[in-house]
Automatic annotation (TrEMBL):
<feature type="binding site">
    <location>
        <position position="131"/>
    </location>
    <ligand>
        <name>Zn(2+) 1</name>
    </ligand>
</feature>
<protein>
    <recommendedName>
        <fullName>Hydroxyacylglutathione hydrolase</fullName>
        <ecNumber>3.1.2.6</ecNumber>
    </recommendedName>
</protein>
<keyword id="KW-0378">Hydrolase</keyword>
<dbReference type="InterPro" id="IPR036866">
    <property type="entry name" value="RibonucZ/Hydroxyglut_hydro"/>
</dbReference>
<comment type="function">
    <text>Thiolesterase that catalyzes the hydrolysis of S-D-lactoyl-glutathione to form glutathione and D-lactic acid.</text>
</comment>
<feature type="binding site">
    <location>
        <position position="131"/>
    </location>
    <ligand>
        <name>Zn(2+) 2</name>
    </ligand>
</feature>
<comment type="similarity">
    <text>Belongs to the metallo-beta-lactamase superfamily. Glyoxalase II family.</text>
</comment>
<keyword id="KW-0479">Metal-binding</keyword>
<dbReference type="InterPro" id="IPR032282">
    <property type="entry name" value="HAGH_C"/>
</dbReference>
<feature type="binding site">
    <location>
        <position position="60"/>
    </location>
    <ligand>
        <name>Zn(2+) 2</name>
    </ligand>
</feature>
<feature type="binding site">
    <location>
        <position position="59"/>
    </location>
    <ligand>
        <name>Zn(2+) 2</name>
    </ligand>
</feature>
<dbReference type="InterPro" id="IPR001279">
    <property type="entry name" value="Metallo-B-lactamas"/>
</dbReference>
<feature type="binding site">
    <location>
        <position position="57"/>
    </location>
    <ligand>
        <name>Zn(2+) 1</name>
    </ligand>
</feature>
<dbReference type="Pfam" id="PF00753">
    <property type="entry name" value="Lactamase_B"/>
</dbReference>
<dbReference type="GO" id="GO:0046872">
    <property type="term" value="F:metal ion binding"/>
</dbReference>
<feature type="binding site">
    <location>
        <position position="169"/>
    </location>
    <ligand>
        <name>Zn(2+) 2</name>
    </ligand>
</feature>
<dbReference type="InterPro" id="IPR050110">
    <property type="entry name" value="Glyoxalase_II_hydrolase"/>
</dbReference>
Amino acid sequence: MLEIHQFPCLSDNYGYLLHDPASGETAAIDTPDGAEYLRQAEAKGWTITQIWNTHWHPDHAGGNKDIVAATGATVVAPQEVERLTSIDRVVAHGDTVSLGEFTAKVIDVGGHTHGHVAFHIPEAGIAFVGDSVFALGCGRMFEGDPEQFWASLKRVRELPPETTLYCAHEYTQANAAFALHADPDNAALQHYAEEIADKRSRGEPTVPMGLARELETNPFLRADTAEMQQRWGGNTPAETFAAIRAGKDGF
Ligand SMILES: [Zn+2]
């Protein structure tokens, strides 16, 4: 049974340590803050043996050097992470990565950055999606184009709906405010937004989130629905996605 240790990092990132008790292996999923990751691992009695980066941004790979220096961990990352740090194993869509007996599939979710990847572990029903998909949101489109980003979101949609998604930021409350503006008649979304407000008022995380619920409520994952196309325009789902993304950027 995989153990997932989630903790806040930097101002609004989540850090994740993924531990396989049978093999003793531990993977750091992204590295917003190397020192904090090392402290968290030590408190759990785990040694980080691998780093899995989702993309090159400093709040995702900036802690690699400190963790490698302290533990000798192996860095598994998409090529673009070379901008920031050395990589032991470059991975791309379709590759697999092992943690003990568990296997993660690497999925291309480019759009926030060109080379962004997610790690899906089917046996555990979980996926680490970095800044591609957030609860009720998606990452800003810094490097990709709408066609690329939409294709990536479709790949996330195709995961089993019971999959639990671990995204990298607590942006949910702001995302919910925009989602209600983007899709005002969605009853499932209204209910979800109330739950989110309650959780945040108690200081609780809204991450991870279930894919099934995101499929019903996340405006970016719903860009090809009739409701979204009517409200946001666009002749293709990618164009509708682009309109929603631009709407969020200016919200
Ligand atoms: Zn990012």
